[in-house]
Design a protein that fits this description.
With 379 residues, the chain is mainly alpha-helical. A 4-stranded mixed beta sheet has the order 1-2-4-3. Strand 3 and strand 4 form a beta hairpin. The chain is globular and about 70 Å long. The two termini are 32 Å apart. The model has no long low-confidence stretch (mean pLDDT 90). Bound molecules: zinc ion. The site of zinc ion (ZN) has 4 residues, from helix 8 and helix 12.
């Protein structure tokens, strides 16, 4: 790749960082306003005591959380139609963008009401008889719901936004199915998503577990790569499956979720929290307001867990890269696929190691190329 092209990646990365700096400051401002003005006003005007049914309290909580997204819309618009447009990535129309936002808000509202009312109902029915363990039972229900969502989401929600079609018959499909068979994936089908409807960024991903597993390739990826490269990308995704990365992540999500619910159980009887937020104490009868506060304030704490999560994520990426190289008998194709992916998406190949250590879920291009060069192939 020529110097000019890497220069383009640098420009894009800089533009994205400058933009998110402004966006971050704006978010702090909104956060402070919500903390000092909006929360006390909202929960005094519509108290959420046990006089409200769980579903009604959940509706108030969900509407509150969704409305907080409204100021961010301005930035989303700018990101799509200025920043992405300038670097040639935007493929969405303004109409499609508006429809996406409306659909997203309705779906968000629906799931939030469902989750908040379930948790509030469990809290009210269990808390009397099991004062010290109700939160474990509530968490187990919540976690089971998350597993169901992992199946429901790709099957019913993603098709509301994108069209997924099985990869059509032909040489590419034959080669990919053969590779899947050989590396122990046994795919029913490989699906192609029409990512090109909104953006020319390319990607591939693996979701689900057991019978519900699926590999999805972006149509943009198929357009931008040759067959060897696509095969290498698929081998990498199969690596995530064969090395059990999704179950490992689920275990981590289980324990961090459990810790979160312990915090919720501690906070729901903490008078100081309600007094500190200037929220009338009658709101303590329902769990919905507390979950709203928790989801607003957990972010700054979770932020400091980012490097830990990213450390494991990068480790998984190296492992999946190695798996792909071994499955293909060479690291050459994956190396060139990654290079192509970085170039098409204008990702800067060499970020500062400290920055990368904290923020990046994937190793940089040069790190991955180096690691691929060190894979040992047994003959
Ligand atoms: Zn990966």
């Amino acid at each position: 790749m020529s110097k000019v092209e890497w220069g383009d990646c640098l420009e894009y990365t800089k533009a994205k960082m400058n933009f998110s700096r402004v966006d971050d400051w704006f978010s702090y401002l909104i956060f402070l306003t919500v903390l000092v003005v909006v929360i006390p006003w909202y929960y005094s005007a519509w108290p959420h005591g046990s006089n409200l049914a769980p579903w009604a309290a959940a509706c108030f909580g969900a509407i509150f959380l969704i409305s907080l997204q409204i100021p961010e819309l301005f930035f989303d618009w700018f990101r799509q139609f200025q920043l992405e447009e300038k670097f040639g990535f935007n493929k969405s129309t303004k109409m499609l963008w508006v429809i996406d936002k409306i659909k997203g808000a309705f779906i968000g509202l629906l799931f939030l009401v469902l989750i908040l009312s379930l948790l509030d109902w469990l809290y009210r029915s269990l808390q009397q008889s099991f004062p010290s363990t109700w939160w474990i039972m509530a968490f187990l229900a919540f976690f089971a719901l998350q597993l169901v969502l992992m199946i429901v989401w790709p099957k019913f929600i993603i098709p509301l936004f994108n069209k997924l079609t099985p990869l059509e018959d032909g040489e590419l499909r034959d080669r990919l199915m053969r590779l899947a068979e050989k590396s122990g994936f046994q795919a029913q089908s490989i699906e192609v998503i029409d990512g090109s409807k909104r953006s020319s960024h390319s990607n591939a991903y693996f979701t689900g577990f057991g019978r519900f597993r699926r590999i999805v390739l972006y149509d943009t990826l198929i357009e931008q790569m040759n067959m060897d490269q696509i095969e290498a990308v698929l081998a990498h995704e199969i690596g995530h499956y064969r090395l059990g990365h999704i179950p490992q992540r689920l275990v981590v999500a289980f324990f961090s979720g459990l810790a979160g619910f312990y915090m919720i159980s501690y906070l729901c009887s903490s008078v100081w929290l309600y007094e500190g937020l200037r929220v009338p104490l009658e709101n303590m009868g329902s769990l919905s307001p507390l979950i709203v506060f928790f989801s607003l304030f957990a972010g700054p704490f979770v932020f400091w867990m980012t490097p830990v999560n990213n450390y494991f994520s990068r480790k998984h990426e190296y492992q999946a890269d190695e798996f792909a190289a071994l499955a293909m008998g060479t690291g050459k194709h994956l190396g060139s696929a990654l290079r192509q992916l970085y170039r098409e998406n204008k990702n800067f190949p060499l970020p500062h190691p400290w920055f990368s250590f904290f923020h990046h879920s994937h190793p940089s291009l040069f790190e991955r190329e180096n690691a691929l060069g060190n894979v040992t192939f047994s003959s």
